[in-house]
Amino acid sequence: MDELSTAADELTRHGQDLQRQASRFQDLQARMAQLGVTESTPDGRIAVTVDVNGATTAITLAPAVRGMDPATVAAQLMACTRRAQARLRGQVEELVYTLVGTGPAAATITDQYAERFPDPAPEPPQAPPAAPVAPWPSAPAQASPTPAPTTSRRPDRDRIVAPEEPDDEDLYFQRKSWLQ
Known about the structure:
Blueprint: H1 2-33, E1 36-40, E2 46-51, E3 56-61, H2 70-99, H3 104-116, H4 168-174
Helix pairs in contact: 1-2, 2-3
């Protein structure tokens, strides 16, 4: 009878351990659901917020972005996103180790975040804009027939560009399917 009571006590302790572990994982899940990380550019023009899954939940653009090159804006958005995801990984790792410990389940969670969100590659230093190049002194100065472009460009949004009448080639391809 003594062996039976010892086995029952062990099962009870094991059940209590499982309940405590389940409670820690529920607490972890609730706290992770609240995680969000925001990263911005050094000048503060662009900011990106990601949720616990690394998905972008907010993008903030300062008015100064309006005159920037679109490729530069896109590159800075992606860089902010990668930095936010890397910081998110660090916060998740800290939370997992604090609440759950260092067991195999914790290692699985942190390994998945490390795989999904590696450290971002170092960004190249931003070079100042290049100064305009003066023409060679020996070259004759020529007047430009078109005016020089201005630094602030306003798109012509009201202008609609479309062919007035379709030509024979347009009509031919309108009747064809791309599947044929």
